[in-house]
Each structure stands twice: as C-alpha cells, then as structure tokens.
Design goal:
The complex is a heterodimer of chains A (271) and B (334).
Chain A lengths: L15 E2 L2 E2 L5 H10 L1 E4 L13 H13 L3 H14 L5 H4 L9 H13 L5 E5 L7 H18 L2 E5 L3 H7 L2 E6 L2 E7 H6 L4 H9 L48 E2 L5 E2 L11
Parallel strand pairs in A: 3-4, 4-5
Antiparallel strand pairs in A: 1-2, 6-7, 7-9, 8-9
Chain B lengths: L11 E12 L2 E13 L4 E5 L6 H8 L7 E6 L2 E2 L5 H10 E4 L13 H11 L5 H14 L16 H13 L5 E5 L7 H18 L2 E6 L2 H7 L2 E6 L2 E7 H6 L4 H9 L5 H5 L31 H5 L5 E3 L2 E3 L2 H5 L11
Helix pairs in contact in B: 3-4, 5-6
The chains are: A alpha/beta (271), B alpha/beta (334).
Bound molecules: adenosine-5'-diphosphate (ADP), iron/sulfur cluster (SF4) and magnesium ion.
Chain lengths: 271, 334
C-alpha cells in the first residue's frame, strides 16, 4: 500500500500488482491505486474512518474520487454498498457517524467502503481480532461472500490459525520478520515443513483435542526484531536445531511449491 | 466430574447475584441473577463474549465490587456483607490472576519484593522463611532463583504471568480466580502458561475459577464449564457434557462459530451464524436476553425470563429446552 510511516522505508525487493512495480510508482499514481485497485481493512475500523463524517459521505467520497460519480450517484451507490454488507436500514444508517455503530457494524462499514470501488486486492489486517466469536463468524462469512461475488484476491493478516484454516487457500507463515513457510493451506496444516509452524500447530488447544495430556509447548520467547539471531531466526527455540542453523537458511522448495526456510528442507529441495 | 461430588459443601457459591452499575446516569445491568457453585478441587471454566460480565463476577466474588442483590458463600459461610476488616483473612484464601500481568505488577519493585508483599501483609513468614518461600515459589512457576532481583520490565509477557501466578500462590489460597490469564499472550506462549496452571492446580489441589472467552482454551483446563450471555448464565455442565452435547442455542452457536485450525474440516463445515448484534447493556432485551438473536425464539421468549433449570447432568436457561424436556436445541448440524 506504500503507507509505511516516515521512519520506515523499503530497503530492498519488489512489490508487484498484476506485474506492475508498485514501489516505483509516484505518490500520485499510488493514490489512484489505493482504494481503486487495492483496498485495506484494519483491526480497529476507527483508525480508517473519519469520526466527523457520516459513513455514507465517506463511502460516497471514495466513489467520487476514484470513480468520478456525481454527488447524488455516489450517495446512492454508498447506500447500496452498505446494503451489500447487510447493514440493516442502510438508507437511514448512511447518515450516522462511525461512533453510532458497534464494533462489528463498523467493520461492515469499512468493508463496504473498501469494496465500493471493486478492488482487485483486499488486504485485511487482523479484521476480526477485536470482535467476539459470534460476530467474527458473521464478518468472515461476509468476506467470503464478497470475495465470491467480486472475484477479488484477499490477503488476510492474522495470528489466528482457525481463521486461516477457514478462509485461506494459501498461507505465508512469518516469524521474526521473515517468511518462513509458504504453501497450500491443506499442506501447511497437515504437513508443516518448518519446525516453527509445526510447533505452533501442536501447541494450540483444540476444541476436540486430548484434554488428558498437557499441551505441547515452544520454549523461549519470540525474538525482538532489534536483536534477531544471525542464523535461522527460530534456531534459539527450535527442538531440531543443528550446526548448520547458525547460518541463515534460504527458502527451500519441498515440493508442489511448498517453501520452507529451514536447513532440514535442504535435502528435499527440488530446485 | 459428575454428580458424585455434590455431597460436599461448595467452596464457593453464588446465589442470585445481580449487579447494576450506573454509567452517565443510566443503569447498566452487568449481572442478572447469577447462581453457581465451585466444589473443592475442581476447575470451573466461565466463558462468554466481551461485556458478558465475567470480570464483574470475579470482582464481586472478591468483594472488589459490591453485588446489588444476592449472596456469596465461601466454604459455607455467607460473606456478602462482611466488613472489609472481617474479609481480610478471607482475602488470603481467594487470590486473583489478571489478564494483563504487566499492569498488575508494580514496575518499581523487584520480583522478590513483589512476592514478599503478600507474605508481609498477611504476616505469614518470618524474614528468613520468606527468602526460602520466595525461592520455592519461583521454582514452582518455572522461574530461576536469580530472577528474584529483577524488575517486571526485564521479563516477557509469559514470564510476567508466571510472576503473577507466584504472587497469587504465595499465601496458599484455596480458591484461585484467573481472569483471561492467557488472552494477552503470544500464541506460542499460551500453552506454557496453560500447562503451568493446570499442573499447579493438580499438584496443589487448588480450586480454580478460570475465566476466558476462548472455548478451546477453557475446555483444556476446566472440569466443568459455565456459559454466560449478557450477564446471565445460559448453561452449566461438566466439560465433556457441555462440549459433547450442548443444549442451549447460544452454547451451540458459540461452538459452531469457532474455526478449527484445520482447512480440511473447515471446508465442508456448516455454521450457525447468529444474526444481529450483541444488544446494549443499558436496555437489555426483555424475557430471554438472547431472544433477539436466537433462531428458536418463540412468543414466550420475549416476555418471560427463562430460569436456570436442571436436566440430568445439565443446567440450562432456555424455554425451548424446557418445553422439549431437556432435548438439545436443534441448531447444530448432524
Ligand atoms: N465500573 C463499572 N461501571 C460501569 N459499568 C461497568 C463497570 N464495570 C463493568 N461495567 C459494565 O458491565 C458489563 C460487564 O463487564 P465485564 O464484567 O467487564 O465483562 P467481561 O469481563 O465479560 O468482558 C459491561 O457492559 C461493562 O461495560
Ligand atoms: S429461551 Fe427462547 S430465546 Fe432464549 S435461548 Fe431459549 S429458545 Fe432462544
Ligand atoms: Mg473481562
């Protein structure tokens, strides 16, 4: 999204959207892309909503800027967008301000705003973390429905492996600031290659797990980004670490485009 | 644990406890006729979504909040109206572990001083015995002796929670109340703390009230489970009964809402998705508080509040379940 704070900048790499390099775009071109092609929703919708504008006006504004709708068309479309995300009484509620909505309803408003321009990509950063589980179920179902309807790609960022299992086709696992595993969801959950993913899945209390045994645990603490180990970032906590882990492993291909940043995968790397 | 233990006196009993707060001049009904018991040596898990009144229950038991009506019994004795002074010795018997271990530890005190404080307040150990007790406590919660000299900020969240647990245990409480003790911790740390609590509970024969919003976490540690919605209990049953054959529509919806960390199982899953929002506490729904979202609601539900009734090994507050002689609500697929 190119929305890093001023004290942060990209130090390398490329970001491509449909083959176009976003990191080389001017700020002006980026403004076009944000909202129209890539939209984002957040854990706390309040950070993205303007507290002194009605939700209808905010959505209408996005539509005027990105789609060039007239004032009255934009307002009508905004109501439609609110209706699409199941806000009851949309025509009336469009006049309300963000603080008039509950947490779950606010997330719906944000989704309506994000989807108003039918983006190609929706980035959802912990979209249900602040919500209760029955409301989370509503919002996840809504996101799945919207994705099916609009055919957009969805990038969901979450710490909740249940949410991942429910809605993702592919998974990128991050640890200590790096991608440590990538693959199809079924593969990642059934045959995790990276010891971190493996240990994390094993440590989850499950609704149908064996309650007569203690949970598997991961020793130690997650690393601070300011003091990352020089070798494998997971090495200090890894039950399988060996001599080679003192060097940083690359991402190895363990087959079927399943990647693992672990020296154990070096042998099976098909590259 | 089934009914065999019911012959003993509960360690803790709440009888029809209600609590009403006033917020900007309006009454907030936080607890509505809450009754339950905790028997010696058991772990009662209390689950509910945020704002359902879990923390208010914990604070009311400890008399940090005064109940508006109802009674609280500890070891058979009515403690509802004891003076703060008469409560003093009881405070030692009931200890609390907080959600945010950082906010609850004084940043200017060393771990040693933090652990010594309750011993001094309750006049438990002499100066030399105190040292020994502190070393013992650190060992009990899996911390090293040299940690005694350090300050809370030098520890990670999981370690701080261990310190909080050590402090609670320092005075040999009979009842431990843990209010969302792992909710603020990194996923990779939660299992460590859950295992510790469970091991300590077994080792020390503690009675535990374990409060959380995560049903999988609660299942892992509890022998019996109580489910709350908007300040009232919906269902109470032994763990395997509650998870294996939930009767109340809300319990069923909650269980159905949890995503399994397993894409294969998730793929074909049919969920009960409740419509609507969690209602306001200022103007809670009439009758059954769940009726605005309950797929089974019928006329009686809007007018009459369902009482918590016993059906075999269950306690359930639902008109539908009552009119169907304790049958499970027919919401869960299969
Ligand atoms: N001191 C207080 N004053 C006013 N309202 C309160 C106070 N404490 C709690 N409440 C209200 O009581 C209800 C229950 O809160 P709480 O017990 O904290 O729920 P939970 O722990 O289940 O999230 C909420 O609506 C909350 O806003
Ligand atoms: S009493 Fe009525 S509204 Fe309440 S849970 Fe039972 S069926 Fe649903
Ligand atoms: Mg609470």
């Amino acid at each position: 999204m190119r929305l890093l704070p001023p004290n942060a900048h990209m130090t390398g790499g490329e970001i491509l959207l449909a083959g176009e390099a976003l990191h080389r775009k001017s700020e002006r071109a980026m403004r076009e892309i944000r909202g129209a092609k890539i939209a984002m929703i957040f854990q706390d919708p309040m950070t993205a909503l303007n507290p002194v504008l009605s939700v209808g006006e905010q959505i209408a504004e996005v539509l005027r800027v990105h789609r060039g709708y007239s004032r009255s068309d934009a307002w009508q479309k905004a109501i439609e967008a609110l209706r699409l995300v199941d806000i009851p009484d949309a025509a009336k509620r469009a006049h309300d301000y963000p603080h008039h909505f509950s947490g779950g309803m606010r997330q719906r408003v944000l989704i309506a705003m994000a989807l108003a321009c039918e983006p190609d990509v929706l980035i959802a950063d912990e979209p249900t973390t602040a919500l209760d589980v029955t409301i989370q179920a509503q919002i996840l179902a809504l996101m799945q429905e919207m994705q099916a309807r609009l055919g957009m790609a969805l990038l969901i960022i979450t710490h909740d492996l249940g949410v991942v299992a429910q809605i993702c086709d592919e998974v990128l696992v991050m640890y200590g600031g790096a991608i440590v595993e990538y693959g199809r969801a079924e593969k990642i959950f059934s045959q995790p290659a990276m010891p971190y993913t493996h240990a994390l899945l094993a440590s989850l209390p499950r609704i149908d797990g064996n309650v007569h045994e203690l949970l598997a645990t991961i020793d130690g603490q997650p690393p601070r980004l300011s003091e990352l180990p020089s070798g494998c970032v997971f090495a200090p906590r890894c039950p399988q670490r060996f001599a080679r882990c003192a060097q940083r492993p690359p991402l190895f291909d363990v087959g079927e485009s399943h990647l693992s940043r672990c020296w154990l995968a070096a042998a099976s790397d098909g590259q | 644990m089934g009914n065999e233990m019911r012959t003993t006196t509960p360690l803790l009993e709440l009888r029809e406890v209600t609590k009403q707060f006033v917020r900007s001049g309006l009454p907030v009904r936080a607890l509505e006729g809450v009754s339950f018991s905790i028997y010696p040596g058991e772990t009662l898990g209390l689950v509910g979504e945020s704002g359902s009144g879990k923390t208010t229950i914990a604070r009311t038991i400890l008399r940090l909040t005064e109940p508006s009506t109802g009674h609280i019994f500890f070891a058979g004795r009515d403690i509802t109206h004891l003076s703060q002074r008469a409560l003093r010795p009881l405070r030692r018997e009931m200890q609390l572990i907080f959600q945010d271990p950082y906010a609850s530890l004084n940043p200017r005190m060393t771990v040693e001083a933090i652990l010594a404080e309750p011993l001094i307040v309750h006049g438990i150990a002499s100066r030399s015995a105190r040292r020994e007790r502190i070393a013992e406590l650190l060992d009990l919660v899996g911390l090293a002796p040299e940690h005694a000299r350090r300050y809370p900020h030098e520890f990670s969240g999981g370690q701080r929670q261990r310190i909080g647990i050590a402090r609670a245990l320092s005075v040999h409480p009979r009842l431990l109340i843990a209010d969302e003790p792992v909710s603020a911790l990194d996923v990779s740390i939660q299992a460590q703390v859950l295992n510790l609590l469970r091991t300590l509970q077994e080792k020390l024969g503690l009675t535990l009230l374990f409060i959380a919003h995560d049903l999988a976490v609660v299942r892992h540690i509890s022998t019996r489970v109580a489910v709350m919605y908007l300040g009232a209990l919906c269902e109470v049953a032994a763990r395997d009964t509650l998870y294996g054959r939930p009767l109340h529509p809300y319990t069923q919806a909650l269980l159905s809402a949890i995503p399994y960390p397993d894409p294969v199982r998730e793929r074909g899953r049919r969920r009960i998705i409740l419509s609507g929002d969690i209602p306001s506490r200022v103007a809670p729904p009439s009758g059954c508080r769940f009726h605005t979202r309950c797929p089974l609601a019928f006329a009686r539900c809007a007018s009459e509040e369902p009482a918590l009734r016993s059906y075999a090994d269950h306690q359930v507050a639902c008109h539908w379940v009552q009119e169907h002689d304790g049958q499970p609500a027919p919401l869960l697929p299969g």
